[in-house]
Design brief:
The chain is mainly alpha-helical. 40% of the residues lie in helices and 8% in strands. A two-stranded antiparallel ribbon has the order 1-2. Helix 1 (28-36) crosses helix 3. The model has no long low-confidence stretch (mean pLDDT 94).
Length: 77
């Protein structure tokens, strides 16, 4: 059984290393922005046919996982 988060990939050569859907040029943040603007899953899939329902669910799961971070630290360069 596939882990839904396996659909989210991070590749330095695609979208400057931002999390994307299945190594395609669809950043997770774009899908989340579309959802928060009120688009339905069906509308997103119609506008972006390469995206699947499971990809949208993976974006939501990824965002949920990020909110569970207990603390973050500023790194000085």
């Amino acid at each position: 059984m596939e882990n839904i988060l396996d659909r989210i990939t991070i590749n330095q050569e695609i979208c400057h290393g931002k999390p994307t859907i299945r190594n395609m040029r669809y950043p997770v943040e774009m899908i989340l922005d579309l959802l928060s603007a009120g688009m339905t899953n069906k509308e997103i899939i119609t506008d972006y046919p390469a995206i699947e329902e499971s990809d949208i669910k993976a974006c939501l799961a990824y965002a949920s996982r990020l909110t569970k971070i207990k603390s973050s630290y500023k790194v000085l360069a």
